[in-house]
Amino acid sequence: MDSLRALAAQLGIADPFGAGFLSVLVTFVTALLFTWFFMPRLREFAVQAGWADMPNARRLNKEPLPNAGGLGIFAGFIVSIIVAWAIRPIAVELVNIQVLAIMLGATLMMFLGFIDDRADLSPALRLVVQVLAAVLLMVNGLKMDFNAIPFLPTLPDVVNDPLSTVLTILWIVGLTNAVNLMDGVDGVVGGLGFIVSMVLLITAAQFSDRAAAVVLLAGLAGACLGYLRYNFSPSRIILGGGSYLIGFTLAAVSLLGTLKVSAGASLIVPLIVLALPVMDTTQVVIGRLRRGIRNPLGHPDKTHIHHRVLARTASARRTAVILWGVALLCGVAGMLLQGVKPLVVAVAALVIALSLGAVARLRVRAHERERAPHLN
């Protein structure tokens, strides 16, 4: 028992049998199992309801594909948080309110994406709703503080307050859309959501004031991994707006913390970990502006990084794995920069890679069984 505790201590786990670690583990497993077993039933309902993406020039599917996967991730995420809350209620009232604000904003983003997939909402309307979700976070104390960001000069309050407000809105709206724009190849965003959630979870666990963030990230990571079981190419179901949910939640949780200095410094890590979607969005927007497109976010094309990788590999599976690898390398860099112990980083990277590999293999084997009757 003592040797197990010593090993856990080396991995950054203070007490492997304590309520804190067990609540995180239960949250992750609950989200994983609920999403895993709920997704096939959701797929059947989506087919009956006509919730499907039809084949077109930009999509890879050759037949109608159910697009309600985001609802499954959302359900698994919410159920796991409720279970975690029942096991170990968060004692700090302010943090309780902030967690509720994140969950409410995530709900808003989920249904924004879901409705947009069916009604094709205007970019202006989507932007307004995303800004409102960011404002919801700010009025509940989740706000970036420019003066807490390392290596930047300290500004007077009259300048810092409005600048911090603008930066917070850009942070939430920018990362939400950056993750959404990566959703073009099976498995990419689901894997990205799992990787980033796990990396931020491990990073947040280094701070005593981020217990709520760790639980939220555990729920999101488990739900993304459960969804990925049905989304790795060839997918059985796709997000259908769930990328808004993933991007918003990751952006919002990175603001969850009570220590001003650590909260500011922690923004560097998600920015590095999310470097792939951020760079993708940046190069797409610049490219579209150069071509004279006035509304770069409302003009879809095939200039995204995942499209370019897919053109070279000619394989959705290889494309997803390559982009997972890039995201994981960014995650490793982010953890090391935050000061996470190299042993913890190595174990985390191995666990993440093995988890993705196992789920991808299960999907491939399931696809082989699905094809078998047709080949006989």
| Average pLDDT rating | 85
CA-based shape: globular
Low-confidence spans: pLDDT under 50, at least 5 residues? 258-264
Largest sheet: 2 strands, antiparallel
**What is the multimeric organization of the chains shown?**
single chain
Q: What is the count of structural domains?
A: 1
Roughly how many Å apart are the termini? Answer: 54 Å
Biggest sheet strand order reads 1-2
Radius of gyration, in Å, reads 20 Å
Helix/strand structural class:
mainly alpha
Order of helices and strands: HHEEHHHHHHHHHHHHH
Compute the number of helices.
Answer: 15
Kindly state the number of beta strands.
2
Strand content: under 5%
Helix percent band: over 70%
